[in-house]
Design goal:
alpha+beta; 3-stranded antiparallel sheet; 43% helix; 18% strand
Length: 189
């Protein structure tokens, strides 16, 4: 198994309580039914009977996203697939929105929410805020629409602007990068 691929170590609940098994590693990027079948095989049970019998002892390569010991296979699979396909940006997305939206929004990289909310990866939030000013040609507009006298007395509170702008975004830091996501459901940009 590739150690860069999101994976889970599972065992039966009884094995966990008794401490008789370290568990078995399973590739978490598989379809939920495949994971369920593998867990059933490990437990020596029918796939339908294994739902309440398993424990996720450990997980790996989820890039900071915590997987609960009782997480359902659909959620585990969706998050793992998103991280495998999109890397740290998707892990940051899950970390940014886990507490704000219903479970069905996690791990759906094909959903418009994912693409619309993602604003990019930056060295700092201030760098992102400055790029937004540049994208809207704010400095050029100021220079071309205000007189020299007005420009002489104009002061732009960039830090205040960045602070207010940050209230509309969720920022997750992984390693040296700041991943920026728009908080608004209706309008992403």
């Amino acid at each position: 198994m590739n150690y860069n691929t999101p994976r889970i170590r599972v065992c039966t609940f009884d094995e966990y309580i008794e401490g008789t098994s370290l568990g078995h590693w399973i590739d978490a990027t598989q379809e939920p039914d495949i994971i369920r079948e593998q867990v059933a095989k490990i437990a020596g049970r029918d796939a339908a009977d294994v739902e309440l019998e398993w424990v996720i002892r450990e997980h790996g390569a989820f890039r900071g996203v915590e997987i609960e010991w009782h997480a359902d296979w659909d959620t585990v699979s969706r998050i793992a697939k998103g991280i495998a396909e999109y890397g740290d940006t998707f892990a940051a997305y899950v970390l940014a929105f886990r507490g704000h939206f219903p479970e069905q929004h996690f791990g759906q990289p094909e959903a418009e929410l994912w693409e619309d909310r993602t604003r990019g990866r930056w060295l700092s939030f201030e760098e992102f805020a400055m790029s937004e000013l540049d994208a809207h040609e704010f400095p050029e507009w100021i220079n071309s629409n205000l007189s020299d006298l007005m420009l002489k007395h104009l002061r732009f509170d960039f830090l205040g602007y960045a602070e207010d702008f940050r209230k509309q975004h969720s920022v997750v830091q992984l390693d040296d990068w700041h991943y920026v996501f728009n908080m608004s459901i209706d309008k992403a940009h």
